[in-house]
Amino acid sequence: MNIVLLGAPGAGKGTQADKLVDEFGTPHISTGDMLRAAVAAGTPLGQKAKSFMDAGELVPDEVIIGLVSERLNEPDTEAGFILDGFPRTTAQAVALDAELSKLSRPLDTALLIDVDPEVIIARLTNRRICRECGHIGTAADEKCPVCGGEMYQRDDDNEATVRNRLDVYEKQTSPLIDYYRGCDRLVTIDGDRDPNVVYADVKEALHLV
Ligand code: AP5
Ligand code: MG
Questions:
Q1: Nearest by Cα to 81 from 30, 15, 14
Q2: Contact 95, 24 (CB under 8 A)
């Protein structure tokens, strides 16, 4: 499977990607996770990205495109990949098509997980993530239900930043819905249902059942 998970912040891209990884072992390429790891490690990339991320703005295209191209050239992605949070601009989508064409590995599907913005604000201000294993949970999880690790809140999951992330999504990323619809690669799934019900639709859309 060569797929892109599209959707607003908090739509459930990471949640659905984790389920696919658990069941199929396909490499999960999350640009947000890559950037957060770079920020935590204090690398030059992390230093450059931090202020954009904290404000809920997009990191410049040239930084992200290089990062993803490099990752797609690693051999584990030859059998498939799940892109999460990339592309996010038309320039990124065009660059992705060019890179995949060079690698002779065309994209199968852009899967849009569709959720109403008001649902998203509640979800994101309530999200907690495990410091040890990266499990995505909620404020109801005092400890990680998977490994017992400490749960933390992302710096960009406060209401003001979430609202800006939603605006940025609307202006800069939602045009990609038409981009992928135009080349017949778009599949839309209602993401405002139980995560396992959403996952059943994800697998059906990807012809995995
Ligand atoms: P990134 O990390 O990609 O964040 P995002 O797109 O804002 O998406 P999220 O990770 O917040 O949400 P998600 O859809 O993964 O939802 P999740 O499954 O966690 O990017 C962060 C920042 O990095 C960007 O703002 C930007 O600065 C930078 N960046 C990253 N990529 C970039 C790029 N390509 N170009 C430029 N800049 C880039 O779920 C959310 C919550 O909801 C969880 O608590 C979960 O338990 C819950 N939940 C999930 N599904 C359901 C469901 N079906 N029902 C109820 N609750 C659910
Ligand atoms: Mg995510």
A1: 30
A2: no
Distance CA 188, CA 144 (A): 31
DSSP 143: B
Flag whether the pTM goes above 0.90: yes
Which residue ranges form the domains of the chain, and what is each CATH number? 2-205 (3.40.50.300)
- Which residues are marked as active site? 13, 88, 127, 154, 165
**Atom of ligand 1 minimally distant from the CA of 85:** 3
Choose the residue to mutate in 16, 34, 52, 59 for probing ligand 1, maximizing ligand atoms within 8 Å of C-beta.
59
The ligand that comes nearest to the alpha carbon of residue 56 is: 1
Question: Cα-Cα-Cα-Cα dihedral of 162, 163, 169, 171, to 10°?
Answer: -160
Bridge partners, 30 (sequence order):
84
Could you report the per-residue pLDDT of 141-196, keeping only the tens digit for each?
999 999 999 999 999 999 999 999 999 999 999 999 999 999 999 999 999 999 99
DSSP 3-state of 86: coil
Which atom of ligand 1 sits closest to the CA of residue 191?
Answer: 53
36 to 45, 181, 191: CA distances (angstroms): 10, 30, 25
